């Protein structure tokens, strides 16, 4: 989320998490001086970071009221453990393609509350591209995961056909935007309805 009014509209749709990107190169970066009301939500808030210093993450999380942090870079399990020991819940993102080995997730099993499987590209998320979801069948880990990467309004049917016991949610971003960080409410509403049918 990037705009207060838009965030207020989105949270009325019954979403479970609200994400806020703290990665300056991203088009969805909340900015150095975010809108004052942007974080005033009772929904669980997720701060999204890429290779950020653990103490910076802790400070921002305390100030903004984040319950979760989503780590999209090359953070190691030790960093993850430091954040977890301070009461944060951890979503660790992995960039997936046909060559990805899910054994890479094992080192994170004890420190991550969730994994997020995104499409492997040259950038850190936000590509709008999908990976082959059949690859998810190879994941045999214990940590529940979110599906991410290029999900759009027409994907609800295919997502419902993914029969994986650890799939716990979907990350909706660029496919539901009118501009970076500005979500299209009608597209989101219809998708959520389609997903629940």
TrEMBL record:
UniProt xrefs under HAMAP family: PRAI
Domain N-(5'phosphoribosyl) anthranilate isomerase (PRAI) residue range list: 13-192
Name under which the protein is recorded: N-(5'-phosphoribosyl)anthranilate isomerase
Keyword Transport: no
Record bears the keyword Isomerase: yes
Enzyme's top EC category: isomerase
Phylogenetic classification of the source organism: Bacteria, Pseudomonadati, Bacteroidota, Bacteroidia, Marinilabiliales
Gene: trpF
Signal peptide feature range: none
Transmembrane portions of the chain: none
Pfam families on file: PRAI
Alphabetical keyword list: Amino-acid biosynthesis, Aromatic amino acid biosynthesis, Isomerase, Tryptophan biosynthesis
Pathway: Amino-acid biosynthesis; L-tryptophan biosynthesis; L-tryptophan from chorismate: step 3/5
Biological processes, Gene Ontology terms: L-tryptophan biosynthetic process
Gene3D superfamilies membership: Aldolase class I
Origin species: Draconibacterium aestuarii
Reactions mediated catalytically: N-(5-phospho-beta-D-ribosyl)anthranilate = 1-(2-carboxyphenylamino)-1-deoxy-D-ribulose 5-phosphate
Similarity-based family: Belongs to the TrpF family.
């Amino acid at each position: 989320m990037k705009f207060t009014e838009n965030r207020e509209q989105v949270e009325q749709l019954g979403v479970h998490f609200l994400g806020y990107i703290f990665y300056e190169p991203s088009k969805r970066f909340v900015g150095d001086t975010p809108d004052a009301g942007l974080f005033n939500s009772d929904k669980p808030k997720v701060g999204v970071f890429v290779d950020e210093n653990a103490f910076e993450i802790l400070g921002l999380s305390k100030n903004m009221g984040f319950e979760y942090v989503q780590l999209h870079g090359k953070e190691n399990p030790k960093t993850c453990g430091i954040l977890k020991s301070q009461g944060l819940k951890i979503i660790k993102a992995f960039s997936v393609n046909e060559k990805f080995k899910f054994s890479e997730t094992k080192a994170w099993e004890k420190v991550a509350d969730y994994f997020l499987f995104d499409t492997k590209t040259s950038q850190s998320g936000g590509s709008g591209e999908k990976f082959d979801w059949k690859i998810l069948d190879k994941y045999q880990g214990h940590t529940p995961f979110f599906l991410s990467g290029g999900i759009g309004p027409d994907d609800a049917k295919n997502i419902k056909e993914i029969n994986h016991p650890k799939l716990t949610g979907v990350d909706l971003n660029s496919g539901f935007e009118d501009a970076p960080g500005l979500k299209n409410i009608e597209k989101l509403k219809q998708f959520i309805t389609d997903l629940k049918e």
